[in-house]
């Protein structure tokens, strides 16, 4: 007997492919009516039809998975992996339909347009995020899957290594960037009804422990508001708990862990030595990434990639403050996914600012773009590699390459 998810995909994936085909047929029909079948506009409309079809399929999967009663036969990680993989299958089948349309339109003088990769990637990522968010919620509610500690206990875990202020700020910063998972007994957004026993979204921690976040660590109660908005909405989280494993990752290496000498080469030790007095949490992120890369029992290496990205981000925030970068001659905000100007400089812009400031080598400049590309490539690769053994090996190699880019940038930017 098929599982719930297998049955869901077997029925809904063909419908999703058919839905994309119908949307594209409507585009063809309209183009024929206005005599523009060979024009470039028709191919843009085909792409729009595929993008909408992928996004709709992601939303439908999330809705159907959320309706399933986990008490009856709990969904597991493999079920969510299948759901996400089916989105990539839809992408491939939809692209095949698009290529066929391009081929057919040659008879009408059209040569087709290459599918805009960024647009397609954004659609697939959006659909996957629909599933990933639900997956995180199911995982956090799975009995015995994780140990949660109160806000006060989280501080106590870090107190031997950090001051209370630094520990609190580090937790908030990491929660903002998805490195520490948080749950609340009650969560409220403005006048909306309270949500009970739910995940606290990473954006809640946008203030990263600064004054815009009211903090009561003893009770685990926090409040803030939505940033960058004329009509501010108050956000409140009561009885907040943090995932113990995420908190413990912040700690320096324990005495019973594998000796650093067996993990860190001389280059890594030099990076950590230079990072520690500048941003200690960045040094810890870098060292944690090296530990994870050396762990032969890991089945995923996305965590080390995030740790490396976080280490670089913290260094850039320290050495290249937003205001200083935005005030530099020739600064122009980059566009976000919706085509609007970003309100803050990107990591790449901050890195280039530092390179220009220090008159760095061309190799460092190339490493900036390579780092951004490697992170994006890794994110896509984890969904497209079919063999688990191949998947793990290639993912690990990708993170090692990311580490090399980070080392180049840090050597250029860090004080000697």
Describe the structure.
With 416 residues, the protein is α+β, with helices and mostly antiparallel strands. The protein has three domains: 4-141, no CATH class; 149-244, no CATH class; 252-413. Helices cover 59% and strands 8% of the residues. Strand 5 and strand 6 form a beta hairpin. The longest helix is centred in the first third of the chain and has 31 residues, at 4-34. The chain is globular and about 70 Å long. The model is unreliable at 253-261 and 375-391 (pLDDT under 50).
What are the SSEs and their pairings?
Layout: H1 4-34, H2 40-67, H3 77-104, H4 117-141, E1 148-150, H5 151-158, H6 164-176, E2 182-189, E3 195-199, E4 214-216, E5 221-225, E6 234-238, E7 241-243, H7 244-248, H8 266-275, H9 280-293, H10 302-319, H11 322-326, H12 347-358, H13 362-384, H14 388-413
Antiparallel strand pairs: 1-7, 2-3, 2-6, 2-7, 4-5, 5-6
Q: Give the proportion of residues in helices.
A: 55-70%
Order of helices and strands: HHHHEHHEEEEEEHHHHHHHH
Count all strands and give the number: 7
Instruction: Choose one word for the global shape.
Output: globular
Count of the separate structural domains: 3
Strand content: 5-15%
Low-confidence residue ranges: 253-261, 375-391
Whole-number average pLDDT?
Answer: 78
- Alpha-carbon Rg, integer: 24 Å
Describe the sheet with the most strands: 7 strands, antiparallel
Treating each run of at least 4 consecutive H or I residues as one helix, how many helices? 14
Q: Distance N terminus to C terminus? A: 63 Å
Helix and strand content put the structural class at alpha+beta
